[in-house]
Amino acid sequence: MANIAITWRRIPEKYCLVGSICRTCSSKYFPLRKFCPKCRRKGKIEKYVFKPYGKIYSYTVVHSPPAGFELESPYILAIVELDEGPRLTAQIVDSNSIEVGDRVEMVFRIIKREDPEGLITYGYKFRKIQD
Amino acid sequence: MREVAIVGVGMTKFGEEWNRGFRDLILEAGSKALEDAHLEGKEIDAIYCGTMAPGPLIGQEHAAALVADWMGLNPVPSVRVEAACASGGVALRQGYLAVASGLYDCVAVGGVEKMTDVPGPDVISTLGGAGDEEWELSFGATFPSIYALMARRHMIEYKTTEEQMAAVAVKNHKHGAKNKYAQFQKEITLQTVLSSKVVASPLKVFDCSPVTDGAAVVILMPLEKAKKFCEQPIQIVASAQASDTLALHDRKSLSEIYATKVAAKKAFEQAKLSPKDIDVAEVHDCFTIAEIMAIEDIGFFKKGEGGKATEDGLTALGGQIPINTSGGLKACGHPVGATGIKQAIEIVWQLRGEANSRQVKDAKVGLTHNVGGSGATCVIHILKNPSGD
Q: Do B254 and A79 touch (CB under 8 A)?
C-alpha cells in the first residue's frame, strides 16, 4: 500500500483529529463523514476538530501483527472513546499496562514504516494521562 | 415467491490441501453436489459463487468465470459474491432469491477459498480487509485483535471468562473429531486452549479458527419440482440478511453483533418459528467469543448467558441445542468463502439423518448463521425437512 496519495488525503484527520458534525442533529463523527446516516438528505455536515482526550473503552495486546507492524509487536491496540463522543481504533504507547476507563490523550507518532527507503506514515496514537 | 429447496450437496475435505488449487477444490465440491442431486449439469441455469479474496490469495480475479469454465457449465451466467467471511452465506441467499423469484429453476451455489498459497502475514492482512482498512487495519488492527476488543467488553459486561471461551473450542474440537471433512479431527482439553500462545489478549491460538483450503456447493430448485425426483429435499424456510458499520468502533455495543439480532428476528418471522423450534445450528465461530455472542444474539440463550451455557454443555451434541456439529469454523476449518455453504451442507445432512456419529436425534429444523468481518454483514438461513411436518 505504498501509495503516497492514500496517506495524503487523510492528513487532517490522522494528524489533527478533524472529523465532522451534523448541524441538524448535532451528531459528531470521527472519522469525517460527508453524509449524516441519521438525517440523510436533511443533514448539514460541517468540519469539526475534536479535542485530543478520551478514555479506553476496550483494549487488546497484539502478539501476531499484520505485515508492516512486526517491529512493534507486542503492542496495545484500543478503542478510545473521545470525550466528545465518537470512538476510534488506535495504538496505546508509553504505557506497559492499561485498564478500561483509563484517561488518554492523543500523541503524534510514526504509525508504519514500509521499508528503509519507503514511505513513513504518521498519525495518532494515544497515551495514558498520568494523574 | 416460490418455495425453494436444496436438492444436492457436496464439499471437499477442509484443511491444508497443498496438492490442490482453487479450481481443483471447487470442481470436486461441484461434482459431488451434482452427483448427490442426480444431475448431469446441463440442468443448471446459473451459478453463484462466494469467495472473499482470490485476488490477494491466488492472484486470480474473475473467479465466477473460472468456476463456470472448469465446471464445464459455459455459457450459463456465473456471478461472484463477496461479503468477506459471509461470502458463502450471501451467495446462498442470492441463489435462493433467484429461484424463489421464478427467474431460474436450477441454481448451483458454491463457496471456495484457497488460503495456503501465500505466507501467513499476507493472509492476516488480507483477512483484515474484512474490517475498515483506513480506520482499523492501517493502525495495526488484525481480525483476532478486533474480536479480542469484543471479548474484553463481553468479559466486563457479563463476567464471561477465558475458561468459558475455551469451552467453545473444546466442544467444537469434540464435534470435529466426528467429522471426516474437518481440518482438525482431534479432541483437545481446556488446558490446551488456556496455555496456547496469545494472539491478541484475551484470545489465544486455540480461540481462533485456522487458515484453511476448501470448497462447498449446494444445488437449489423450486420445492415443487424438487419433490418429483429428490427423496429428501430440504426446504429453505427463511433467508435474512442485515448490515452494520464496517468498523467495530462505530457500533453502539461491542458485546453483541447487532446485525445478527436483526437478521435472526427477520428469519424467525419469515419461518414463523422461534429459537426454541431449532433442533441444530451452525453458527459463525471465527473466534470462540463469536460463538458465545451468536447463541445469545440469535436468541438461544439470554444475553450474557452464552458462556455459562457452553460451559454447562447445553450446546454440545446431546445438549439442549447442539451448536456447530460440523466442528464449526474452529475445528472443521474456515476457508472463508466456503464456510457459509458448508454450514448449510452440515444442516442438510442433519435434517436428512445422514450425519453419522454426530447426528442430532430427530432433527427437523436447523439454522445457519454466517458473519462477515466483525459483524458488518450477517446472513441467516433456516432449513427444514418438509417431510417432518
A: yes
Q: Average pLDDT in the B284-304 region? A: 98
- Choose, out of B145, B158, B201, B254, the residue to mutate when testing the contact with A (most A CBs < 10 Å): B145
Compute how many other C-beta atoms are within 10 angstroms of the C-beta atom of residue B185.
17
Percent over 90 (pLDDT), chain B:
97
Residue A6 is predicted with a pLDDT of 84
Give B228: exposed, middle or buried? Use CB within 10 Å, 0-12, 13-18, 19+. exposed
Look up residue B156 and give its three cell numbers: 466486563
Name the residue ranges covered by the structural domains of chain A: 1-16+52-131, 18-51
For B101-246, strand residue ranges (E) read 107-113, 198-200, 203-204, 214-222, 234-243
Nearest CA in chain B to A73: B140
Q: Which residues contact B287 (CB under 8 A, 6 or more apart)?
A: B144, B147, B148, B151, B203, B207, B208, B209
CA distance B355 to B379: 24
- The ipTM assigned to this model is 0.96
- A23 at the B interface (CB within 8 A)? no
Residues B38-66 pLDDT 10s: 999 999 999 999 999 999 999 999 999 99
Helix (H) or strand (E) holding B347: helix B336-352
Model confidence pTM above 0.90: yes
**Are the C-beta atoms of residues A46 and A26 closer than 8 Å to each other?**
no
Round to whole Å and give the CA distance between B306 and B300: 8
Write down the number of H helices and E strands in chain A.
2, 8
**Domains of chain B with CATH codes:** 4-119+211-234 (3.40.47.10), 140-208+237-383 (3.40.47.10)
- As a CATH number, domain A1-16+52-131 is 2.40.50.840
Is B191 strand, coil or helix? Answer: helix
**Those residues with Cβ within 8 angstroms of residue B2's Cβ, 6 or more apart along the chain or in another chain:** B99, B100, B101, B102, B222, B223, B224
